[in-house]
Amino acid sequence: MNKRSFVVGSLLLAVPVMLSAREPKLQNPCKDLRTDLDSQVNNLHKQQDDALAQCRQANAQRQKEINCLLTADDAHREIVGGPGVRCQVVGVKS
Q1: Which is it for the CA torsion 22, 27, 30, 32, positive or negative?
Q2: How many Cβ atoms from other residues are within 10 Å of residue 77's Cβ?
Q3: Which DSSP state fits 22?
Q4: How far is residue 5's CA from residue 17's CA, in Å, rounded to a whole number?
C-alpha cells in the first residue's frame, strides 16, 4: 500500500468523526441583532461617503466656474473704472 493513500484514507475517516464531535451552534439573538445593525450602519456609511464624494465633486466644479467668472469680472472692472473699483448698489450707502 502506498503511503499517500494511507494518509488520505486516514484523513477521510477522521473528518466525519471531527465534524460530529462539534457542539451544535446555539442561537444568540443579541449577536444576530448586533451583526445586522453593524451591517446596516456600514451600508449607511457607504451611502453617506458616496453622497459626500458627489457633493465635493460638484462643489469643485462650481468653484472652478465661479473663479473663472470672478477673473473675467475683475478684468471688466479694470477696463471700466480702473483697479479696485466695485459696483455701487442702488439704495445702499457704503
Answers
A1: positive
A2: 15
A3: S
A4: 19
H or E stretch at 61: helix 29-81
Helix, strand or coil for residue 27?
coil
> What is d(CA 33, CA 43) in angstroms, rounded to the nearest whole number?
15
Torsion of CA 10, 11, 13, 15, to 10 degrees: 160
C-alpha distances in Å from residue 46, one per residue of 22, 54, 55, 83? 37, 12, 14, 48
Residue ranges per domain, the chain? 26-94
Cα separation, 90 vs 6, whole angstroms: 100
CB 47, CB 41: distance < 8 Å: no
In this prediction the pTM is 0.43
Task: Name the DSSP class of 90.
Answer: T
The tens digit of pLDDT for each residue in 15-44 reads 555 555 566 778 888 999 999 999 999 999
